[in-house]
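Chapter review: from sequence to fold.
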Amino acid sequence: MTVLLAAMVLFGLVIFFAGLLGVAKEKLRVYEDPRIAQVTEVLPAANCGGCGFAGCADFAKAVVEGRAECNGCPVGGDDVAEDVARVLGVEVVKTFPFRPVVHCAAKSKDKIGRVPYDGVESCVEANVVGVTQACTYGCLGYGDCALVCGFDALHMVEGVPVVDYDKCTGCGACARACPRDLIEQIPFKQESMLVVACANKEPAKMVKQVCKVGCIGCKMCQKLLADLFEVRDNLSYLNYDNYTGAEDFTKVREKCPAKVMVYFGKPRPEPAKAAEPEPVAAASTEA
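The token string follows.
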């Protein structure tokens, strides 16, 4: 009788706790929109963080919840944006891909007043030391940006980073790695974009003492194209919101005394040379 009573009590407890768990499951269940998994599937699974989120799964959740745009994945580009929009049943607005450019064109030979440095070969470390070169704005040249690139799209050449735009996905890892914020993500409205390749805000006299190719704030670019260029704190800035991709920057580049107006992106085709005229035979003087 005692054994039977104990079994009944245990059975009752089992039924009670099973019911309790069933109620708890319903009450505490967290609903997840099935579209999150569908969006995650169409993403490239790079988990690069270029979208501003920790990974593709977080980005997918943010898109479904309306906290991110369908075209927020820089790696996937327009194709992935269209797939995401299709899952959500919305129309994606076409945008331009963001790619990195470098606001420093000073190669090792262009830097004046470099100081021997025996510390850790890292831009972050050298920037803290602060005495490795006279220019306190320019590229330090130790390649932290190249080391963090997961697509082998950036390499150090003669002391400055050079981007391989055929491999670059625009994830932004290089921009985040630069301790001097010399790498900027800009909208590529054409295959090659003009960039002011300098970040030095010192007066012209001081710039010339530390660099052979630094902006001197002469305002020539601003005079020629006032709707695109503005000189602030002795440095020229290019307004990419007004940049259409149809501008002719020939005069700006020719008149820039520091030659800091540099194209980034795929090489621009050389202008076709006019064909030389065929030599004209001299007229015969014979009768």
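Two observations follow directly from the output. The chain has two domains: 34-88, 98-265. Residues 34-88 form a domain with the 3-methyladenine DNA Glycosylase II; Chain A, domain 3 fold (CATH 1.10.15.40).
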